[in-house]
Amino acid sequence: MTYLRSGIFLAPFHAMDENPVLALERDMELLQHLDALNYHEAWIGEHHSGGFEIISSPEVFIAGAAERTKHIRLGTGVVSLPYHNPFILADRMVQLDYQTRGRAMLGVGPGSLVHDAKKIGIDPGDQRRRMNESLDVIVELMRGDTVTRKSDWFDLNEARLQLPPYTRPRMEMAVAASRSPAGALAAGRHGIGMLSIGGTSDDAMKHHARNWDLYAEQARLHGHVPDRQNWRLVTLMHIAETREKARENVRYGLDKFCDYFRDVATFPIVPSDIADRYQYMVESGTACIGTPDDAIAFINRLLKGSGGFGVIMELAQNWADWAETKRHYELMARYVHPHFQSAREWRTESYAYAREHHDVFTTQSSAAVQAEIDRLAAQRRGAAE
């Protein structure tokens, strides 16, 4: 079995009735919790409107989170490239690479919220073109090139980074890929990772598999070797000790989450005519809401439907209250992740071997103990004589 890394995609999503100060603090606490639970990575989003996803600068958030954590890798999930000058963004990310001692990752995309683009005068039809133009520049800068290039939205004159990346040859990078093929094509062209977003129903998995094929085709065309370990798949999960408890837990925030995607985001998670959102999500394969065993079966379905990927990414959604949310991640780390990371096999084999030879070993142990008792008795008899 291929080693499957674990991670989260933190937009974040926070209901409108929450205190934003406490909501952001809880996001920081979540990363500390995941760090202690041996999650491998977390990706932090960039959004500027809509009211529900309230981190505007993933770089600022990552800098703070890096000071509170020890091991977990922290990525921008994702920086909306059309909103930033590529030279300035590359320079900021290299600084973050240094500050985190190589734990930072650069995830990029065109920007998912149309109202974000509109507020700064960007035509949504230009976002994917701008993403590609920016990504080309960033990759060149990260490898030490001097870039002179003029577009309708940036003008670079002998731009060159003043610091080489801390991570050599460069920090890990990935492109978000959803319904459009643009992300897969861009990631493949540069030979960097792919972050697949957009659901995990059977139809969605077929779409993700097609995007991987596009990625692999582009990678080979440009001299790169496609590696499924660099493919991250984002899905929705909440687990508890029982299915009944998991369902009860998500009553806390599931409807608010679905309402946001229906009312504000660019595509609904659940069709508007569905009355029982929980039932739809579970039956359609959009989400796993159940037990650790259900989560293992769910991830196995995703692995089979995709052909394999390197990181299972949970979309952090706050469906449950804070205590049950932390409990979910603990159950994932204790019982689900080890199944996909070959963490228990050697222990299981060692236990099985000891059990199978228990009678023999017990007999040998008893014989050894009795031999020492007999030896001591013989010594005392000899001394008495």
Task: Summarize the entry for a quick read.
The chain is an alpha/beta fold and 385 residues long. Helices cover 49% and strands 15% of the residues.
Molecular structure report:
By secondary structure, the protein is α/β, with parallel strands linked by helices. The chain folds into two domains: 5-343, TIM Barrel; 349-384. It is built from 14 helices and twelve strands. An eight-stranded parallel barrel has the order 1-2-3-5-8-9-10-12, surrounded by nine helices. The protein has a two-stranded antiparallel ribbon with strand order 6-7. Strand 6 and strand 7 (155-159) form a beta hairpin. Helix 3 crosses helix 5. It is globular. The model has no long low-confidence stretch (mean pLDDT 96).
What is the strand and helix layout of this fold?
Layout: E1 5-10, H1 20-36, E2 41-44, H2 58-68, E3 73-76, E4 79-80, H3 86-99, E5 104-109, H4 114-119, H5 127-142, E6 147-150, E7 155-159, E8 173-177, H6 182-190, E9 193-196, H7 202-221, E10 231-239, H8 243-250, H9 254-263, H10 277-284, E11 287-290, H11 292-306, E12 311-315, H12 322-336, H13 345-356, H14 358-384
Helix pairs in contact: 1-12, 2-3, 3-5, 5-6, 6-7, 11-12
Strand content: 15-25%
What's the SSE pattern?
EHEHEEHEHHEEEHEHEHHHEHEHHH
By DSSP, the count of extended strands is: 12
Q: Mean pLDDT across all residues, rounded?
A: 96
Q: What structural class should be given to the helix and strand makeup?
A: alpha/beta
Features:
12 strands; 8-stranded parallel barrel; alpha/beta; 49% helix; TIM Barrel; two-stranded antiparallel ribbon; 14 helices; 385 residues; single chain
